[in-house]
Amino acid sequence: MKNNPSMHASVNMIRPDGDVDLSKEEVERFRTPLCPVCEGPLKPDIIFFGDNVPKERVEKVRKQVSASDAVFVLGSSLTVYSSYRIILQAKEENKEVAVLNIGPTRADDIVDLKISTKCGEILTDLTNTLCT
C-alpha cells in the first residue's frame, strides 16, 4: 500500500481468486514494488504461467511422488506440462492417480479415478470419510 496508496479502497473489492476490477487510471498509476536487494520487480514465491519451475523443486516433487502410494490432484486442469509430468511419472511408477476437478483435464484418459465436481462441494465429506 506504501507504493500505491490510492489502491486502499480497491482492497475491499478483491475476489476470492485474487482478481480485482481496476480502472484504466489505476492500472496506469500502479507502481510495482521493487526488490530491496536487486531493485527488480518484487515477485511472490510462486510459479507464474510461462515461468520455469526451479530444478530443486522439480527434484523434490519427483522424490515425493516416488515415495508416495498414490497421487490425488485437486482443482487443476493439468494443462501446464510441469503439473502433467507429475501424473506421467506416477503412472510410469504404476501408482494410482485420482483427479477432483470441475472440468476436463489433460490426464483424463490415463487417471484411475476422475471426479467431476467443485472441490468445495465434496472435500469436507471426503475428508470426514477418509480420516475416520
Describe the structure.
- There is one protein chain.
- The protein has 132 residues and is of the alpha/beta class.
- It folds into two domains: 1-43, no CATH class; 55-130, TPP-binding domain (Rossmann fold), CATH 3.40.50.1220.
- It is built from four helices and three strands.
- It has helices at residues 24-29, 55-67, 81-92, 119-130, and strands at 70-74, 96-100, 113-115.
- It has a three-stranded parallel sheet, with helices on one face.
- The protein is extended.
- The model has no long low-confidence stretch (mean pLDDT 87).
- Keywords: NAD, Transferase.
Brief rundown of the structure:
This protein has four helices and three strands; from the N terminus they run ααβαββα.
Question: Notable features of this structure?
Answer:
132 residues, alpha/beta, Rossmann fold, 3-stranded parallel beta sheet, extended
Present the secondary structure layout:
Layout: H1 24-29, H2 55-67, E1 70-74, H3 81-92, E2 96-100, E3 113-115, H4 119-130
Parallel strand pairs: 1-2, 2-3
- Tally the beta strands: 3
Enumerate how many helices there are, as a single number.
4
Strand order of the largest sheet: 1-2-3
Mean pLDDT score, rounded? 87
User: What is the CATH class of the largest domain?
Assistant: Alpha Beta
Tell the overall outline: extended
Q: Describe the oligomeric state of these chains in a short phrase.
A: single chain
Helix content: 25-40%
Strand content: 5-15%
Radius of gyration: 20 Å
CATH superfamily of the largest domain: TPP-binding domain
Protein name: Chromatin regulatory protein sir2
GO molecular function: histone deacetylase activity, NAD-dependent; NAD+ binding
Keywords: NAD, Transferase
Domain Deacetylase sirtuin-type: 1-132
